[in-house]
Amino acid sequence: MQNPFSEIDKSKTIEEHSNIICTYYKFGTIDREDAIRKFRLFNEKHSDYCAASTTVFRANNSLDSIKNCSNEAIIENLKLQLAFLAGEDYVNNLLKNL
Questions:
Q1: Going by C-beta distance under 8 Å and a sequence separation of 6 or more, which residues neighbour residue 73?
Q2: Cα 53–51–19 angle (5° rounding)?
Q3: What does the pLDDT look like over 29-78, one tens digit per residue?
Q4: Three-state secondary structure call for residue 98
Q5: Distance (Å, whole) CA 85 – CA 30
Q6: pTM, rounded to two decimals
Q7: How far apart are CA 39 and CA 84, in angstroms?
């Protein structure tokens, strides 16, 4: 049985990332420090995501510090993290039905 708190944590992450992304698209600004903090916290909690993304970024020679990234790049990274969570749920549900 899955830990119910992990679902709460995942929902919180989705809400926080979505709020940052929507604010950026609506107003064109972000709280960089908050966005970077959320990005790093996600990476700490999801080592599998961090390992996979680091490999992709190294392959593309784009392993820049998130602090040096543009607002657009920060938003794109947050969107990738959301996509990772969605894919993780899809795979987990698929495996349950095997």
A1: 64, 66
A2: 50
A3: 999 999 999 998 988 888 776 655 544 444 344 445 778 889 999 999 99
A4: coil
A5: 22
A6: 0.74
A7: 13
